[in-house]
Amino acid sequence: MLIPRHLKRLTLASTCVAALLAGGVIASSSADLSSQINASQQTAASLQGQINSETAQIEKTAGGVAAAQGRLSTVQSELSQHITELQSVDDRLMKAGQQLDSLEKKLHIASRYLAANLRAAYENGSPNLVDVVLNAHGFSGLLDQVNYIKDAQKYDAEILSVTKIARARVQREALSLGKLERRDQLLTNEILQQRNQAATIEAALAKQQLDDETARSHVKAHLASVNAHTQQLQKQYAEAQAAAAAAARAAAAAAAAAQANATQQATQQAAQATEQVNQEASGYAINTAGAITAPAGAPAVVQEMIAAGNRIATLPYIWGGGHGSFVSAGYDCSGSVSYVLNAAGLLSAPEVSGDFESFGDPGAGQWVTIYANSGHVWMEIAGHRFDTVALAEDGSRWSDGGGEYAGFVVRHPPGL
Asked: Rounded to a whole number, what is the distance in angstroms from the first to the last CA of the chain?
């Protein structure tokens, strides 16, 4: 039995080594592609973050441009209002200038008359009341002379008053209009400066926005290139994984074939060795290692019972073993029989020896017969004895013939 086992191990080992050598290159290539894909994905994530940052900056810049444009519109509106107001002031100045020119002409005429009167008074002397009375020709003439003097004095006084008032008005009007013109000119200059400043800010923001758009387009182009490279790597990785899976399937198939071959060889050699060293009983070989083989044509349930018996054939006898659970380190007589029947689907829970007196149908069966009383139970399967007494005698529950028959109730599973 040692030779087939070594051959089986050697065959399986050689097959596994071949599979590992075949898959090693593929695994190395897959690992390299995987690391490249991870690096590409990290680069793509970094570029995407940069694009998001650039987009946020562009949005801020666009907001600044919009604010600057709004400010520029406000300044232009204020400038238009002040230009309209300045035009009104210019109209007022023009009218005031015309009025001032008219007043100056009138003032010039009045001044000329006043000067003539003063010069005449200086050259001829101012007539007094006595001269007027002495030179008057009658009372009527006297009245005319006196009224003339009064009218002349009054006229001179009026000319002088008008001259003073006109000069004062001209001076006040000129000062007022001059202040208003200087004020509007100052406001106009200030608004022009604000408009120029807003236009400068708008131009700077527009340039910044253009620069940001350009930078983002470059990053997007780079990202597209990285994504294309990542897709190519993923395609190569998928191909490598498919190749690895194919190699693994081929290796598994080769290993399974090698194992089947090794198992077949081991079975054949074991059968040959068994035939050489074991006894023949009813045409069925009993293995000296404690196992038997099912005869050809045995029902499947009988084959399962023999396989189950082989699994526990050499396990030690333990009183109560196999009753708490079908899985145990050892079995007593009823535990052994319960285990075999359960493996074949004929018993759902362990039973004690006396319970088997009423198990199944009475009498011996064609393939399986159970012998039971209150103190012991054993069975025959395909002509072989399965009994813990045989374990105590030969080291295996299987034996060729023998067994106690007196005092036992004979039963068998229905149909077997």
From this structure: 33
Determine the Cα–Cα distance for residues 7 and 263; give it in Å rounded to an integer. 9
306: helix, strand or coil: helix
Of the candidates 356, 359, 400, the residue with the CA atom closest to the CA atom of residue 375: 356
Q: Indicate the CATH number for domain 2-242.
A: 1.10.287
Q: What is the per-residue pLDDT across 180-234, written as a single tens digit (0 to 9) for each?
A: 788 878 888 887 788 888 788 888 878 888 888 888 888 888 889 889 988 888 8
Task: Give whole-number Cα distances, 159 to 55, 109, 333, in Å.
Answer: 81, 9, 160
**Residue matched to tokens 């894909």:** 37
CATH H-level superfamily of 284-412: endopeptidase domain like (from Nostoc punctiforme) (3.90.1720.10)
Q: What are the residue ranges spanned by the domains of the chain?
A: 2-242, 284-412
CA of residue 1 relative to chain centroid, distance: 61
DSSP H or E stretch at residue 370 = strand 368-372
